[in-house]
Amino acid sequence: MNAIFEKLAMYFQFPFVQYALIVGILIAFCSSLLGTTLVLKRFSFIGDGLSHVAFGAMSVAAVVGLTNDMWLVLPVTILCAVLLLCSGQKAKIKGDAAVAMISVGALALGYLVTNLFSTSANISSDVCTTLFGTTSILTLTKLEVWLCAILSVAVVAVFVLFYNKIFAVTFDENFAQSAGTRVNLYNLIMAIVIAVVIVLAMNLVGSLLISALIIFPSLSAMRVFKSFRSVILCSAITSVLCAALGILISIVAGTPVGSTIVAVDIAVFLLYTLAGWILRRAKH
Amino acid sequence: MSVITCSDLSLGYDGKVVVEHLDFRVDAGDYLCIVGENGSGKSTLMKTLLKLKSPLSGQITMGEGLRQTEIGYLPQQTVVQKDFPASVEEVVLSGCLNRMGLFPFYRKKERDLARTNMQKMGVEHLAKHCYRELSGGQQQRVLLARALCATRKLLLLDEPVAGLDPKVTAEMYELIYRLNREDKITVIMISHDIAAAVRYASHILHIGHTPLFFGPTREYCQSAIGKAFAAAEEVAL
Ligand SMILES: Nc1ncnc2c1ncn2[C@@H]1O[C@H](COP(=O)(O)OP(=O)(O)OP(=O)(O)O)[C@@H](O)[C@H]1O
Ligand SMILES: [Mg+2]
């Protein structure tokens, strides 16, 4: 046991380990806040979908020869998020089908464009980087850490200020609108926040981890808790703890960071499922 | 004082007409019952009154002093996700949202209002329960409490008693009647229960692609269409 702590203490003298822990926790926190609404609106896979869109946009940017592809990637991804999330309950194609359509379409078009116009394309490595992050979480710079911190503060502020409206719109969009709540405005705000978080986090930790961070904590919390507020609180706490634990384990055991966090999330999900089952039993 | 006036209103989806030439007027304190066969456009009319969809043509005039944020609505179906975590209290409180403007949190005022309305609907003891684990009748009461939080003036109910047992149905009608009588809330209700409609409502609107009847309940009972509809439903007027 002591050896483990010594090892950890040694690693924590390196700034890149500190950065990884900070960014990991911040992203886990933000995505768990957004996760509950996304899961309830049947957009669990939006992280994956938007990352494919970003991949498509990156391919186009590479072909066109943009030096900084963020100027194309961010607007295109935000646009897709807005299209997906703002059509709301009136959409003819919705939820999983809409996400799948946009995701598969963007992936195919991106691949096609690269194949047609690019001479030295290394497609499989490009796909791999969108899945697992362009810069690994262990090579973050100070600037990226600050960016992440500012973004998290903004996300938390938006979430807290609009919490009651987000609940009303997620629970019953028609009623909220009939009572004069500006449903479209709140859907738009959420869509933009979600797109920005996903695009930035995707670059830092990869889309695989983002998807996991969006779904696992809220699904876990829903096994045990029955009110919106308790689910949100529980999933935020769970998410942060799982991310921290996953990063620590990966440092000690030398395993890949993203996959370790996901593994911890899965273990916690099973634990919560068991707890929920026992609680329900105990009530009867 | 008129609350809602509709003149030559046509409704439909994607350019396809469902109801046309609607002309009616609801005054403050009225209890209007909308009747008609399945698919005759009752819910469509209600959604249009709520501005959830726009009419194909014609005009809806809201009375003076009635803002969109003062309308309470009980939908025909509330498709709540099977796994949505929400307590009864949270659902009822969400009806208060339109009172708060830009202020982001519920104050004591709103919490008190929610508690009062839960008491009125007899669901106060369920406040901490999970909404989706309630029975259909209890859920309906919770949604009515939410609608009450949203309004002081006008209540729009789309088949509020669908799926309730006879005893609870009678209680529900009494509740709505009392809200209309004692709290002076204007009620517009869609119902298939013609017996209850003529018993409680002050006015009847009967639609079937075109308006078939609009007027006070007394006249409806004497009209040919009223008699025919009641006979089909095997109800004595
Ligand atoms: N979203 C929609 N898109 C297209 N057509 C619709 C839509 N909703 C309803 N309709 C059509 O409009 C007509 C009126 O529907 P509406 O729901 O208003 O009927 P209703 O009078 O409320 O019937 P019920 O008694 O069954 O509730 C129906 O013919 C229906 O097919
Ligand atoms: Mg209907």
Topology:
The complex is a heterodimer of chains A (284) and B (237).
Chain A: H1 2-11, H2 15-40, H3 46-64, H4 70-86, H5 95-117, H6 123-132, H7 142-161, H8 163-171, H9 173-178, H10 183-205, H11 207-224, H12 228-253, H13 257-283
Chain B: E1 2-13, E2 16-27, E3 31-35, H1 42-49, E4 57-62, E5 71-74, H2 88-93, H3 108-120, H4 136-150, E6 154-158, H5 166-182, E7 186-190, H6 194-200, E8 203-208, E9 210-216, H7 217-222, H8 224-232
Parallel strand pairs in B: 3-7, 3-8, 5-6, 6-7
Antiparallel strand pairs in B: 1-2, 1-4, 8-9
The complex binds adenosine-5'-triphosphate and magnesium ion.
**From the helix content, strand content and strand pairing of chain B, which structural class follows?**
alpha/beta
Quickly count the helices of chain B.
8
What are the low-pLDDT stretches of chain B, counting only 5+ consecutive residues below 50? none
Taken as a percent bin, the fraction of beta residues of chain A is: under 5%
Major sheet attributes of chain B: 6 strands, mixed
What's the CATH topology name of chain A? Answer: ABC transporter involved in vitamin B12 uptake, BtuC
In CATH's first tier, which class of chain A applies?
Mainly Alpha
Backbone structural class of chain A: mainly alpha
**Multimeric status of the protein:** heterodimer
Distance between the termini of chain B: 30 Å
Question: Helicity range of the residues of chain A?
Answer: over 70%
Beta-strand residue percentage of chain B:
25-35%
How many domains is the backbone of chain A divided into?
1
Largest interface summary: A-B, 28 and 38 residues
The total count of strands of chain A amounts to 0
> Count the strands of chain B?
9
Uncertain runs of chain A are: none
Order of helices and strands of chain B: EEEHEEHHHEHEHEEHH
What would CATH call the architecture of chain A?
Orthogonal Bundle
